[in-house]
Amino acid sequence: MKTSYRAMQVATPGALELVERPIPEPGVGEVLIAVEACGVCGADAADIEGADPTLQPPRVPGHEVVGRIAALGAGVPARWRIGQRVGVGRLGGHCNECEPCRQGLFQLCRNQPFVGASCDGGYAESMIARSTGLVSIPDELNAEEAAPILCAGLATFNALKKCGAEAGDLVAILGIGGLGHMALQYARRMGFKVAAIGRGQDIAADVLALGAHVYIDTRQEDAADALKRLGGAMAIITMIGDAAAIAAALDGLAPRGRLVLLGAGKDPLPVPAGFLVGGERSVLGSITGSPYENEKTLNFSVLCNVRPLIETLPLERANEAYQRMRSGDVKFRMVLTMDDRRPASA
Length: 346
Ligand SMILES: [Zn+2]
Ligand SMILES: [Zn+2]
Hints:
By secondary structure, the protein is an alpha/beta fold. The chain has eleven helices and 15 strands.
């Protein structure tokens, strides 16, 4: 029985280091996960660049975690068993006590850790997780392909469900990377007319293969004009936080259309009030979602054959995986794998 595990922790802001740590015991309501794979999400940048340098031990990032339950703490419900395949996304498990929890709005729980930010995440061979944050992984998905669904998949699938568009309506996906490439696949299979908005011709063939009906290259045309020519979008789902890029597409939103935001940008969003009022348009923020919604996302992915396009690297090369994610040098999601993990099959 191993007594230690390897982890990539934030050595200094922006840099990860490989360390060996003693395997912890899960506390009340917690499980120990033997991690098999962990996706590298854009949100990891904030956790790695903005990590508290005084924190001891330093933070382990990663919130697209798939593995198996290796140990159960006291009070964990019987639905979770040793050896079961589970995942954890960004939201680390709700408290069941606060006002949003009492309303069943678990994604808005006020006492919920953000995995990889306020508790250690999955750039590691072992991880402690609250059982309320666990997601069951379908047998049809291997660990590497399930991992990105837990954040990139969930965030985009839920946003599309909330976007108000109906089958046949034009839906625009703004920003084609880790999240956007999932959004295109889901949007196509949900029956929308799908417009992908990106920069450059290098991804044109990819976005059409992923499910877009139309590719709007903002280096060649104005996004809002292109959407208007197509009749106006009933929803623009934006993966990016760049306020100027969002503003440039906004005018393409049809009356009663919704702008759905997934990325929290630095700058305030310039949205003319008259544009909203005059067309009864709205702006909606969407946080990833609950474990139940995550299982719905995984199951829809199996049902409709949606898979992330991934490149894998072993855990100890997390710095390289992270830098490639940051520079956009990946199609479309980096996933870290643990060497001594068991076979991925169920
Ligand atoms: Zn994420
Ligand atoms: Zn709560």
